[in-house]
Amino acid sequence: MLSPDEIAEIDRELAHYEQPAAATIEALKIVQRHRGWVSDEAVAAIAAKLGCSPADVDAVATFYNLIYRRPVGRHVIHVCDSVTCWMLGEPRLTELLKAQLGIDYGQTTADGRFTLLPICCLGTCDRAPAMMIDEDTHRDLESVDAARLSAILERYP
Amino acid sequence: MSARTSPPSKPLTDRIRPNHPPYGLADYERHGGYQGLRAALKMSPQDVTALMKSAGLRGRGGAGFPTGVKWSLVPMGENAPKQKYIIANGDEMEPGTFKDRLLLEGDPLQFIEGITIGGYAIGASIGYVFLRAEYVEAARALRKAIQECYARNRLGRNILGSDFHFDLYLHTSAGRYICGEETALINSLEGKRAIPRAKPPFPATSGLFGKPTVVNNIETLCNVPHIVHYGAEWFRGLSKGKDGGTKIYGASGKLRRPGAWELPMGTTVREILEDHAGGLRAGLKLRGFLPGGASTDFLTAEHLDVPMDFDSIAKAGSRMGTGMMIVLDDQTDVIGMVRNLERFFARESCGWCTPCRDGLPWVEKILASLEAGQGRPEDLTILRQMTRLLGPGRTFCAHAPGAMEPLQSALGHFRLDFERAAARSAAVAGGRP
Amino acid sequence: MSAGDARSATAPLVTIEIDGRRYRVDPRRNLLEVALELGFDLPYFCWHPALGSVGACRQCAVTQFKDENDTQGRVVMACMTPCADKTRIAIAHPDALEMRASVIEMLMTNHPHDCPVCEEGGACHLQDMTVMTGHAYRRYRFHKRTHVNQDLGPFVSHEMNRCIACYRCVRFYREYAGGDDLNVFGAHHYVYFGRASDGVLESPFSGNLVEVCPTGVFTDKTYGESYTRKWDLQQAPSICHHCAVGCNIMPGERYGRLKRIENRYHGALNGYFLCDRGRYGYQHVNAQGRVRHAALRRDRGAARQPVDADTAIATLAGWLAEGRVLGIGSPRASLEANYALRALVGADRFHRGIDAETARLDDLVLETLARGPAQIATIADIEQADAVLVLGEDVLATGARIALAIRQAVRQSAYAMADAAHVPRWQDHSARLLAQEVKSPLFVCTPAATGLDGIATRTYRGAPQDLVRLAQEIVHLLDYTQPRAPGLDGDTIHLAHTIAEALKGAQRPLIVSGTGCGSAALLQVVANLCTALGRSGRKPWLALLPSECNSLGTALLGGPGLDAALARIEVGEIDTLIVLENDLFRRVPAPRLQALLMRLSHLVVIDALATPTAEAADLLLPAGAFAETDGTLVNYEGRAQRYFQVYVPEGDIRESWRWLQQVARARGQDLGDALDALIAGCAGSDPRLARIVDAAPSARFRIHGSRIPRQPHRYSGRTAMHAQRDIHEPRPPQDPDTPLAFSMEGARTGAPPAEIPIFWYPRWNSVQSVHKFQQEIGGPLRGGDPGVRLIEPGPGGHYHDRPGYRAPAELETVWLYELFGSEELSVRGDAIASRVAAPYLVLHPATAARLGLTAGATVQVEAAGQRWQAVLRVSPTFAANVAGVPRGLPGVPTFATGTVLSVREVRP
Ligand SMILES: Cc1cc2nc3c(=O)[nH]c(=O)nc-3n(C[C@H](O)[C@H](O)[C@H](O)COP(=O)(O)O)c2cc1C
Ligand code: SF4
Ligand code: FES
User: Fold this and answer.
1) Are residues A88 and A135 located together in one domain of the fold?
2) Are A79 and A19 in the same domain?
3) pTM of the full predicted structure?
4) Which stretches of B251-320 are DSSP H helices?
5) Quick one: where's region Disordered (chain B) (predicted)?
């Protein structure tokens, strides 16, 4: 069930810990990096690889907000909704995003391109509000308008 | 080897060049790097620990626990467990806080040197960096630096020709603020749900995989090489107060120049906000500020001249926390701000203990209804009661008590806002047919 | 027996102060335990006496004062606070009171308040704690979070909305019982306790969730199907009949149906937990296949016709008068019933209801226990063992509760580490984390893989003969005067060394074995092991499992086995055969048995169930099932335990011993007319049985002149329950046999431990009330744990001759066991039946390959003239050469141990 690449990457992580189960989170992230999200089958495969039960792996997977147990779009937008960003216009940013994408938090656009999620403080409060798209942090969005937002989104086909 | 002649006054950020990639090993060493580790390897581990004590280094992760004392709790000597661990806490998810990111992105080697010395001092041969998932840039910088250190004998076996071995692994997290709590962090590093552990036993005796473990904040560890290199005296001299060293202070909110700056420990709030952050934007007045992240009590304009050090801020009725301020201006709805904070804390509760798991969502809902003009007068009674029921000792870890700090202080400093909101709601309700 | 108590260690008492009064207490305990023991009603959720403290629920808040001068105090959790000397706390302090009420209020923000339709209602710890803390009015006005429930299989219902997230379920299921298919998912206030997806809970101990859960998330599905409130159940103390461990149970009845089994706390035996066979095996009592009326076949070939009891009794008395009678007893019937049969037919005409081979094994168990030097291990003892050797017995299948205890035993070295680190043993997660994977030695040496392998230091797989050799080598290593085992390979010798060292190095070594392998040689070498350990200066603990609930009772009564009886029938000596609660088709190959039964004039069967033997009877007498009768069983440790009738069944059903008493009376023989006469007779028949009288007080026992009521004081509808049939209130049945009454009237307090019909205490309506009945939390019941040991181990000292070694023949049978399937009664209920595997056969891959068979193939198996089909399982961990057959599984016939099978593939 796991690809040779996934297995090799997990094995590398396994070497870093006293116990195989310690690599659970890494294994979940590896699989997610390859597949976008973690399906039930992937949970079972990771469990088999690490010598524990699917319930063990899923207990961990469902705890962490950055492990997706449902399919997500090709790109995931995380909008910081913590305090400084909120003060500096996160609600506005969120409304713009929702309008442009036509989705609410927790949803994926019909074309499977974007999933929109809130996230807590991205640690860039000096340049709030901020959001992350995939691995890129976009900052200084206080006065963002629809045009600038489109320009940003266009970079994520 | 070192080009430096006089010790730096801003040791932590001295080598950081904004908008430039961090130094590689050669440049790092040209600018004084690895002098600390070289010196440490010539000392006994116990002496390194003693040095931290006399330098007055207190943890920068929020609680301000003296680092030397923490290290000295680890069993040493023949009968100590063979395997021990040191973990760097780079989870940094406290809203308003972004200092560790700057340090890791700007000078990863300084941190690596620091944790290596820490490993030496407590006899740990393995270190982990627990880094929050979203710090992609920092992770890249760290990976590169770790690789270079391995290639150049700064990590691995017989470091710098000594008989000290030290492996360092980067673990990137998968989210959840509670991972920053040191025992939850240990569980997470073990691949488990990040539920805090009961203390005692403290990690120093039973931590990662049950072995003696020290968890230190990134900024804390970044101070270590300099203390070993330049001495405790020098370190104490950097500070304006009792606690040694400099501190990365920061400020965010509707300020002219929000940011983070390395300043002498004990710099006053006013200096940070006015001189460095440029004061509030035009037309705004200061109503209050959280001195050290989301989980600290509001202070107000009357506290502007309090020095930002652990004891002074405590005396003023708050906590220095991470030293990263969040500023509340007079145009921002204080109830909305507190509601935002409590939503964060409710969402990030691990779900282990009752008051936190079930109390925080209730608090959040009450605040939301007050904010929306649908509160009830008795809501304030419940909120006040909650600040007591979710206070220190009442919950399993410090998460919920931290959540109560901004709320309880807001209920005090901004009482009228809350009472007005409750009254407004009552009026609306009363006016309904 | 509370979490990890080291029984040897004692600690000087310290003084603590609670609400201004001083108490002398054990410093190794926590404040919550101690407060409960002292009689304080201190609420709690996440703490459990067997699971320890984890500090999650924050319900047990008390105010602690630093010293004499501290007037303010601070709120701490009692469960997480050690009883240090001079600890001062207040339970009644306003801060603590507010905290406790508020924790309930917060828990209730998401609780659905569906008590009227909740199976837990009225017996709910959450309800009790809510009332106790005084939280009465809801201030929360927002939405409640909701969850979707799961189908968890036939045993346990799931209603997640009631969850208060105390984490007890996962702590029991995973940490205590070793299951891995139940867990907690999600975070913050969306924590969800269940499986990764719908499906049967795999743990053999899943039913304990029902009692471990303090509210109605996990409830007994079989009970829910025809539900009755706890206070409407008629109950009596009983003993589980589904294996030889003899767990104490509390069955409850309403409207003539047995509704459920609950754990009945026993400090030395089952403690707080049962296995699922014990909890759910009761449904046979309500099953369609019950025999409810006496029936007589008047002519060969004719059908049996119902007859009234008097006619039945007279008929049997007449046949007895003709002589040429034989009686066959049963290891699943009480001592009293077996004794009554023996008394009726005469000792020389009484046979034990088991084949000679099994009889020899049971006798060897008795002899080994009695000879010493091993001490007989209770389950509480097993939990304290610091090195365990399991030899030949798949305890998880044949005596599951013992396997659960072995799971706790392997924590002994973890406790030692906790002690060294000054972490209290009750601080459960800290103690576990400190120890990580460290476990005390456990060696599981069996023919096939077992459920304990996962926690074993080493496992060894071999045919019984190989196990004998391994054990013999260990004997040799412990005592060089003893011979070595022949022909062992280097690995096995090395293993023998490892085991010998572990046993020698232990303070409390334990050997677990039994009759499951059907090997007398194995039992002898186990005895030799005990002797060798004794000589090396270690007094081992020993647990030997016989196969059935009263195997040792019948062994103590004695008598020849079935084979001798069959031989007497074969030679035409016998006209009338009386079979007591025994299905001979489970013990004798059918072709032979059928032929023999043809030679009888009269087959008389007394049984509760329409077994094949009962079907063949000429006279069938309906016997009470376990919950409908009283009697005494002797468990694996030789403890005589009395069980009591829960309710009076409908029809002609009566205790088998009462049928026999009445037949005796009709013949002018006096066996008495109530239970006590038989107990006295039985006790007088053999000095080893003398003490059974003390297993429970006699029928004359009264509390201030009153009986002990089986019905709770809130029992409803007594006058109206049967009004649709008869508006007259029937007179409650009389009970001549016990001090219990089928009534609400009587003495509610002061029942002796063996005769407590319900755990209930003012303000404690749930099973949590049991602490009010204990001397100390997790310790014996007040007045001592029920039952009496009939066997006292002697000094031991001599060896059996070294057993001879014979290599097993190819495809020689090795018995395997299933928790669900191997036991006769439990498979007759729907819930257990749905968990029973189809017939299978296990071979080692090499053996399968030699036979040209592949895993999953349907094979036809033949043994002793019987053929059946099975699915082939191929297992590399199974002993080579031999064939594993699940004993007693429906669809698998019976034959002698060691029979060589023939196997061929069935092609569709
Ligand atoms: C809810 C919670 C979150 C925390 N998050 C962090 C964090 O993100 N980074 C950190 O260094 N310390 C965090 N801490 C503090 C750590 O538990 C710990 O005290 C610290 O890492 C110790 O390092 P220091 O002694 O160097 O300060 C957190 C504490 C709590 C209770
Ligand atoms: S956590 Fe403790 S605190 Fe709570 S009851 Fe459970 S037992 Fe007590
Ligand atoms: S509040 Fe958004 S980055 Fe900090």
Assistant:
1) yes
2) no
3) 0.96
4) 269-270, 310-316
5) 1-23
